[in-house]
Amino acid sequence: MTEHNTPHKVVVIGGGYAGTLAANRLRMRDDVDITLVNPRPEFVERIRLHQFVARTGDATIDYGTLLGEGIQLVVDSATRIDTAARTVQLASGRALDYDYVIYAVGSTAATPSSVPGAAEFAFDIAEFESAQRLRAKLAELPLDAPVAVVGGGLTGIETAAELAEQGRTVTLVCGRTLAPYLSVPGRRYVAKWLTRHGVAVLEAGVVTEVRPDAVVLADGSADGSADGSADGAVRASALTIWTAGFGVPQLAAASGLRTDALGRLLTDETLTSLDDDRIIAAGDAAAPSDQPLRMSGYAAGPLGAQAADTVLSRIAGTEPAAIDLAFTGACVSLGRRAGIRQLARKDDTVVNVYIGGRMGAAIKEVTCKFVVSKRIRREARKPGSMGWPKGGPRPEQPASAARVVTSP
Q1: Which of 210, 327, 368, 385 stands the most exposed, by the fewest C-beta atoms within 10 Å?
Q2: 167 in Cβ contact with 199 (< 8 Å)
Q3: Whole-model pTM?
């Protein structure tokens, strides 16, 4: 570590993959006071929440095993960033002074208000508290009770597969496309695995209403279970799990900072807020150049490291580097004994190559462990050690997204 004298206060908002890694990496200098604000006292392995719900694995880790020495953990929620006073206001009423903020609040579920009954009757799996409620509800249901999973993305597939492997009766309503992030051969492999394990895959199905005991589909595809109502086909569902889409916390907008339409903080290519160069974003809640990267655990670590490097560069008075991250594909678990590793080009466009079966499952498990042990924990032991695949410069920043420097 480099020795300095003047302390610099950095508040990291959000203790997920991006925020935890960023906090550890900031320890490259010994004159940085680091405070990590998180609403939970434990780290949540979000990529394992489907296992937690199905009781096939745990999804929390003690922060004491993840955070480097000297990092202060504050269990609280940030409600506003006061850029004029340079304080982070907390739900408890406390205020934290800062020189820099790393904005790593992550993402949330996006249950649409436009779908009647979705908010009232559907369960989501995006955060630990909602996963706890879903886990408890599942425990109340008999094994043969029909379960509908809404959303054909990676979260929906993993959730449906985990439950189907346990013998549950599962319908996966994809909303037009199954596994859009996979190649055509990869999608075929996933579809065959789901069908072989009894999952009814309604690829063209779109849910227009959620009821306490059923979902209503727009296209009438309920495999003969329609009740003839004018609203569409009705499929029985003792439990509906909503995994279609994500949102983000609205902290940036509530703090008067510019965001994109979803609420992600608008930044330049160094992840610096367009409104205040003392606020640096990372992870799912960042929208660099209004062209956000794909929301993923894969991108969270490198973006957290990049955010920490940007803060350290500004403290040192040097020019921060721009984002340089190559994607390599995606991993999807299909229960505990199968999975798929989809390969992709550096720009995140897939190729028609994948690894399936037990090898795919092994790669997914190694990837999950790698994120915690080889990234976060290693960064705690040796700040600055993390590297990642580089993809070269991204498209030029639009002129309309120019950054306004508001602090000296």
Answers
A1: 385
A2: no
A3: 0.92
CA neighbor of 215 nearest in space, from 238, 246, 194, 243: 238
Q: Cα-flanking dihedrals φ and ψ of residue 277, to 5°?
A: -80, 10
How many CB atoms are closer than 10 A to CB 192?
12
Locate 6 and state its tokens: 């003047």
User: Which of 339, 306, 310 is closest to 403 using CA atoms?
Assistant: 310
Q: Residue 299 is inside which H or E element, if any?
A: helix 297-316
Which pLDDT tens digit goes with each residue over 232-278?
A: 699 999 999 999 988 999 999 999 999 999 999 999 999 999 999 99
CA distance 367 to 89: 36
Who's near 293: CB < 8 A, 6+ residues apart? 286, 299, 303, 323, 325
Asked if residue 158 lies in contact with residue 309, where contact means CB atoms within 8 angstroms, the answer is no
**CB under 8 Å to 351, separation ≥6 — which residues?**
183, 343, 344, 345
First-to-final CA distance of the chain: 26
Question: Residue 44: pLDDT above 50?
Answer: yes
405 pLDDT above the threshold of 90: no
Q: Which amino acid is at 3?
A: E
Give the Cα separation of 57 and 276 in Å (integer). 41
* Closest residue by Cα to residue 8 from 317, 283, 255, 305: 317
> What does the alpha-carbon distance between residue 259 and residue 148 come to, in Å, rounded to a whole number?
33
- Give me 172's structure tokens: 């996966």
